[in-house]
Amino acid sequence: MKIRSAPVPARGRALAAALATLAFATCLAGIPSAAQGGEAAGAGELPLGPGPLPETRTSRQLAEGITQVSIERGQTSAEDFWTVTVGVGTNEQEVAELEAAVRAAGYEPRRDATAGPDPRGPLDRPLGWMVRVGRFTDRAAADTARTEMVAAGLTGSVQYTGEDGHGTTGPWSLDVLVIDPTRFTGRMRSELSNGIVPGRETTSETARRTGALAAVNGGFFVIGGDRTTPGPWLAGTDGDLAGISVVGGDLVSEAVNGRPALVLPSESGKRAAVRRLSTRITLHTATGTARLVTGLNRQAGLIVNCGGVGTATPFTRPAHDYTCGNLNELIVVTPKFGTSAPEGPGFQATLDATGKVTAVRSVRGGAVPAGGMVLQGTGSGADWLRAQARVGALLTLRKSVADVDTGSGVPLTSRTSVINGGPLLLRNGQVVLDPVRDGWSPEDIQGADRAALYNGWYLQRAPRTAAGVTANGRIVLLTVDGRRPGHSVGMTIAETAEVMRGLGAVNALNLDGGGSTAMVVNGELQGLPSDRTGERPDGDALVVLAR
After folding, report:
1. Mind listing the pLDDT tens digit for each residue in 66-90?
2. What proportion of the chain, given as a percentage, has pLDDT over 90?
3. Sign, CA torsion 39/41/43/48
4. What strand order describes the sheet that includes 340-351?
5. Closest Cα partner for 57 from 122, 6, 104?
6. Which of 97, 206, 431, 547 has the highest Cβ tally under 10 A?
7. What is the C-alpha separation between 371 and 223, in angstroms, rounded?
8. DSSP string of 447-501?
């Protein structure tokens, strides 16, 4: 059943926007409609674009207590076009140098301001300026221009200005799942791709493997894993979760301390929450000696998205898409990593299910025992392990998860799921974006161009996945297509926060997006993947099971 929203007169735009947000939020909060009868969810406009804009919604009830709403909004703007971006400069000198290089290659540069300021200030000027060449009506022409520019000695990328983050009329294509835990009779949980940490599979494959009624992609993870050193890239094991993961009550991956996560204390979805989390993991000997564990189920020395503990370098705060290092690690590898532990120099001890050390070796790697674990040490961690983990010794692993804002613990029962994400979007109904705290600060880190990352990832539009909880405990899962001009331009992080609030969420976070964004319903992928190769294999997913 499709419900088409009629255009709203300009004189009533402000009131209509307020009523639109209220109408949809109220619908999701419990007024009989989508959540209680399969009819369209709300009749008001989403807070996207200048409005009023054409908007079409299609709603269907998938099962008792779970509804899908598909939303098509807006239209292609005549003011948007294709262009080639040579680079981003944050001051006059950087911009002038880029422009000089463009002119030297025989092209005329153009400056386009970023869609927001540096979050550290000053707030009265843009973060920087994108130095660009050309205005093209289609991508093919822009691709041709870029090829010619590269041959002339320039670098650059083809971009669509509707994705810059400035005002546009769209279009947007969104899918929303609304789950009412008081009526939902199935189960929902986090699920590792392939059932273990290494490797990836698409959300569609995860849904098929688990028999899920619906699924959305989960948190951040490592792609490729071909790099073996810290730096401004993703490094480690392909599929390694770059943040906290709890599956069936089992802490599988440590937190990027202080970043938000979606917490599901029960498989029904009751008491779902969005919380900033930290993890504390310690290893204890029978004589009372203890050592801080720095990581779970990952390669030693590689802390993706940073936010680690101990002697992590260059810092212990979050830094998105940056891999921090640590030469003095104690890593725990469980069967969730698979049957083989990561290899490398250091010291290793193998424990059985009772915590007894059954074997030691002077290098890392080898079999992971079912029901047991492998301990891997480097630097001072290896020294400690070598002294304490003698064959026959008993070692006890203790793990805890806590809310960093309240200090309260998160109980880990057999039905607990936690999925990492960021940034935090909403807290108690208010937009609470803090890119610096959540790891998207545009500051340079050892030569890494973080300003370009912040502009491209945070300020510009892209496919997004988000999760939130309404005031009365309903769960809202959102995906929006992007990087598909003419179909959907995606959303900025700020737009994602406002849309989640417009959908009735009071607490919400962003999950992994871009090519990872995917929602599957009844075995069918909703929307269009942004990657040219199709749906991207991810590290984990949130699956909704009929029973």
Report:
1. 999 999 999 999 999 999 999 999 9
2. 90
3. negative
4. 295-296, 330-333, 373-377, 340-351, 357-367
5. 6
6. 206
7. 28
8. TB-HHHHHIIIIIS-B-EEEEEEETTS-EEEEEE--SBTTTB--B-HHHHHHHHH
